Backbone:
């Protein structure tokens, strides 16, 4: 951030009175521009034991597999965001069930919220950001080609939990990959 | 948002190619400025059956009672954010336990994440944003003077769950108050 989005003047990094962190503060109108983490909302759509995965048509991780998920929008709830992303990426309708996983990714200022979900019918097709969609049994999951650690961890827990017959909530933190 | 935070030129509301929503797009450099919901993270600090509440020294809802909670910062996890807010607002140290409640507040683009927590000692005092702190039994909770619906709902569930001896995760949506 270089300029104030309210008045167009340059911003400077300063610690406002009563604050403990440096913020982008406008040098003209004085407004403080806070920057906060964003939420990625998505779901694990299930149909008769199989899970719907999407192969990404966009960067990052183009060509790799993920569950339907994306940035939560203003004006929606977490679960409606997960439903919308599933419709956009897979043209698929789901009934959202319980919150299943929360992953913190502090080094990129993101929080993932993934819900369990029931696919309502088999009428699905790739959206604009998707190359290909498959309904996969556990044995067919392309573990070496999953786009994100959050999704790999969530799917691992999911199949373990299903064998145990219980789906407790999972929370974790993703650390940066060491070079 | 009126000006581009990258180059200072005016922004316009447009629907970018491949998008479905109108965004603030820079009329000069073309960058798209997405706006997304923010997270409020906090906890319910407990000590021998009593709960720590803070009376707010700042707007909104100055003078009313809340649990320690505030905007999640970039670079932190949800639970570390809850711990930091408790330190800032109450100078209190807690051990964060499980995620207890998620509230969607779509009309103000917020998501509340509240954790159960164990107060580690009785050395607490009001922070800059707090007028007064109390450790309260259920019978002493000032139900008519709670600052936010999220906090009132969470405390109601909390004491009900404690009587039942189990603390399941709660999720809800706060609607705008009708005039």
Residues:
């Amino acid at each position: 951030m270089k300029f104030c989005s309210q008045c167009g003047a340059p911003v400077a990094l300063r610690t406002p009175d009563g604050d403990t962190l440096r913020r982008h503060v406008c040098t003209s109108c004085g407004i403080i521009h806070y920057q906060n983490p964003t939420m990625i909302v998505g779901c694990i759509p299930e149909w008769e034991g199989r899970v719907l995965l999407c192969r990404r048509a966009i960067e990052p991780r183009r060509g790799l597999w993920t569950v339907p998920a994306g940035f939560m929008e203003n004006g929606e709830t977490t679960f409606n965001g997960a439903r919308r992303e599933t419709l956009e990426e897979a043209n698929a309708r789901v009934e959202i069930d319980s919150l299943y996983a929360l992953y913190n990714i502090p080094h990129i200022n993101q929080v993932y919220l993934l819900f369990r979900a029931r696919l309502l019918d088999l009428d699905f097709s790739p959206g604009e950001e998707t190359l290909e969609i498959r309904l996969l049994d556990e044995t067919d999951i392309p573990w070496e080609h999953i786009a994100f650690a959050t999704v790999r961890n969530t799917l691992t827990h999911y199949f373990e939990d299903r064998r145990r017959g219980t789906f407790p909530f999972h929370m974790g933190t993703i650390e940066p990959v060491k070079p």
